Known about the structure:
The chain has one helix at 29-38; strands at 9-12, 22-23, 43-48, 51-56, 61-62, 70-74, 78-83, 86-91, 96-102, 104-107, 116-118, 123-125, 131-132, 172-176, 181-185, 188-192, 206-211, 217-225, 228-233, 236-241, 245-247, 255-261, 264-269, 281-282, 288-291, 294-298, 304-309. It is mainly beta. The protein folds into 2 domains: 22-132, Beta Barrel (Lipocalin), CATH 2.40.128; 145-309, no CATH class. The chain starts with 8 loop residues before the first strand and ends with a strand.
Amino acid sequence: xxxxxxxxxxxxxxxxxxxxxxxxxxxxxxxxxxxxxxxxxxxxxxxxxxxxxxxxxxxxxxxxxxxxxxxxxxxxxxxxxxxxxxxxxxxxxxxxxxxxxxxxxxxxxxxxxxxxxxxxxxxxxxxxxxxxxxxxxxxxxxxxxxxxxxxxxxxxxxxxxxxxxxxxxxxxxxxxxxxxxxxxxxxxxxxxxxxxxxxxxxxxxxxxxxxxxxxxxxxxxxxxxxxxxxxxxxxxxxxxxxxxxxxxxxxxxxxxxxxxxxxxxxxxxxxxxxxxxxxxxxxxxxxxxxxxxxxxxxxxxxxxxxxxxx
Length: 310
């Protein structure tokens, strides 16, 4: 959902994670996407002869001979798989730690807990391979020290009172990141550091940014001047492009964000290139995309790898 305030400020709301029950059907894209962001990088899933196999990228050999119709990435000790329509967990030798007898599973709700899989009567940590009969919630990460730019009365402020005077020259503080602030004055928008020093020209007419849960905004933003979007990371310019990203909170390496072209989506990269194909949907972290009845893994060079076909 894109929410527009006035004519030129477009905060893009983030995807809020929640425990989601997954039934034994096709690949669950949000779960696959979340696990790919944090899973082992020395092993990958490759589709061959309608099955997914685990491969060691250093040796270019299978970890073991067994393949699965549906499988999820390995963490240190284990991986989630589906066999005969039911879910279980295997170790690095392909042996079941938890037999494939569950029709549903859940991932723990916070992004950093993608390695915790919850079944009906037990929970397993894929990093350690340890099982428990209940879910022990990890501590939620502390929010950034700098919070919302307006208090309940609508007055401009920053968390450190010493910085207030530096921002008196601006009509509005639009949003605050960890190391930068988006400001506006007389209808023009720019970026400063948290002490009020300019990081960009203040001559932009529109801004897009993604609100980052629980507070603040994502480090990458877009500023528009005429028909061109200027993309910045923490106040440093990355790229100029005619493509207008609709969100920036992606984890795919070298990606700036996702943009929409007609009814389809593509990824914009830091070198100005875009993903080779267009998609009906691209996942939260941009690791997974869907086009018609096929699911693809996206790569940082803009190419795709077929993962699953319904």
